[in-house]
Amino acid sequence: MSTPDDGPRWPADKLTALRLGQPLTVEIAASGPGRRAFVTINPVTTPADHQARQEGWKRADHTREYRLTHWDYDADQIDGFDYDLGAVLIRNATATDEAELITLLQAWSLRPQPHLMAVTDALHGREYAPADYASSPASTPRRGGAARGRAE
Known about the structure:
- By secondary structure, the protein is an alpha+beta fold.
- The protein has one domain (12-132).
- It has 3 helices and 7 strands; from the N terminus they run H-E-E-H-E-E-H-E-E-E.
- The chain has a 5-stranded antiparallel sheet. A two-stranded antiparallel ribbon has the order 6-7.
């Protein structure tokens, strides 16, 4: 990702995942006790991506757009079927390219570092890593799926 020399850089595996259309999720500090919060970066897929998937491969795209969502969930609901009960969309945004994605992450007090984000399966998240979110400690991650909210 082209950034200034003193700016944040993506770990190669995370940048590759994004370019291949794989969502990234990070757990961040929630709004309060009994809550859990996640930021998800969803690469925007195109008809060319769908065709590649039908052919059994993933297409890398250095010019992708990205949708970011920040959801806050009821911690007691997160592991169940109705995980979105009590969920609150805190903010969402679209980045038109990789450079704007870094700018948005910085505005949201997140940095693209290896320990901050782990690739998750688009439908059934397997694991995620806690983030260093401003001055607030992130809640402790638990095994299971990262919450998936409905944006837009």
